[in-house]
Design goal:
Belongs to the alkaline phosphatase family. By secondary structure, the protein is an alpha/beta fold. It has helices at residues 2-23, 30-44, 65-78, 111-120, 149-155, 171-177, 196-205, 240-245, 255-260, 289-300, 315-321, 325-345, 431-434, 477-493, and strands at 54-60, 95-100, 159-167, 211-215, 226-227, 230-231, 250-252, 267-270, 307-313, 350-355, 359-360, 362-364, 404-409, 415-416, 422-423, 443-446, 452-453, 457-462, 472-474. Strands 7-8-4-3-9-1-10-18-2-19 form a ten-stranded mixed β-sheet, sandwiched between helices. A three-stranded mixed β-sheet has the order 12-13-16. Helix 4 runs parallel beside helix 6 (171-177). Bound molecules: zinc ion (ZN). Zinc ion binds next to helix 11.
Amino acid sequence: MFRRTFTSTLAVALCASTAMAQDLPQANSEYFTAAQELLAERIAAENNTRPAKNVILFVADGMGVGTNYGIRLFEGQQQGMLGEEHNLPHDLFRHSALIKTYNINAQTPDSAPTAGAMNTGAKQVFNTINLDETAVFDDCSSEQPLALFSEMMSDAGRSVGFVASPSVAHATPAAVYARTANRNWFHDAPEGCRDIATQLVDQMEAGVIDVALGGGARDFAGEGVAVEKGTGRRPDGQNLLERIAGLDVQYVFDAETLAASDRSQPVIGLFANADMAYEHDRPDTEPSLTDMTIAAIEHLSTNEEGYYLMVEAGRVDHALHGGNAYRAFEDGVQFAEAIRAAQEMVDEDTLIIVTADHEHVISFQGYCGRGSSVVGLCMDISDDQIEHSGEPVLAADGLPYTVVTFGNGAGSVLIEQEDGTYSGSRPELTQEEVTDPDYLQQALIPMTSETHSGVDVALWATGPWAHLFGGTMDQETIFHVMHHAVFGAQDAAQ
Ligand SMILES: [Zn+2]
């Protein structure tokens, strides 16, 4: 009965929109017909309520709605479009939500408790990972550990892996496997506390983590000890790579050894001493985020029971901290490539979530015309063509300005004077100067490192139970949807 009602409502809706399309003067607008096609697709679409076999959580660190917009235009313009009309792969996912990112004690979050919320289902304390709400930063005696999604998946016979462009011990990947009162204990922790790299090896030994790919070789070897791609930093002198060699875990260190690794065996890849290169500066010997994502899916897919994979584009965040929009957007394009590659490799049993841990203080300025380079000057809207006029828009100081600026950071126009005060004015900018990949966009408040912001980020999802995302949600809800898609839906199906 319900089904019949639904079907007839659908038919009426389709007729109504077709009739409207024929009658209205705007019916021949390409914008209008494209929107009609999307509407018909949405009316016909059905929610996927299969139990999820696999979950892939894509996190572009620091890619809030603003940064995602910048990446969209950057990629579209690289492909010869004006840019605004372009869609990133996740822009086309049917389900999305706005995500509140605050931490228990922070309006503006950091990447540790935000990733922790996604992996445990509960908000956490600033600069800590996967501890309960009584945690005290930098005090490991306060550590009350939370249960992790990775451990639940592993207990259920599924494989778990992660890919990250910073160190594998950095905050976002660490939230997949570690608990710590200080996210900076990469390779060193006070007496009686566990550093993060050691916890990764513990979790590989326990069989929880099967694939770990990223940077951070220095976190795994003793101080001054030379290893592939770097020199150890561990003050305890431990060589964790020797421990890894004693486990059934392969160790790879460049694009070639990653490509040659046995997909049926666990693997750790440490491709740089600290963070991996920005995509703009990446040598061919270093695998890209896409290369790592493909390899991780190939490895994890050898488990018939399914897997959980977290992929972090961590250097989007680093480029934004540096006030450099170009590298942030180029790493964002690589993130989009990794999502496209994953979509081609998985089927309707895989829940794919794309989101960010937090946004930055990036802003987009002025009434710019279509196709203004998103890393260039804001160009005036043309009176007689779609594309901008080619003439920069001028501010009240008579000078042009860039599309992107930052609220604070290294590009501040306020310069420290001899008497210790800050003052300044904006220099004249040329298009050639501001489109250089090394250019730092103008900012207001002077800071050595540009900051995060507390504003909501977006989440996009496709696959089993993706329709549970919607409206404005707290970040920890991501865990609950992933858990229901895998375990709740499985119980219901039995
Ligand atoms: Zn950050």
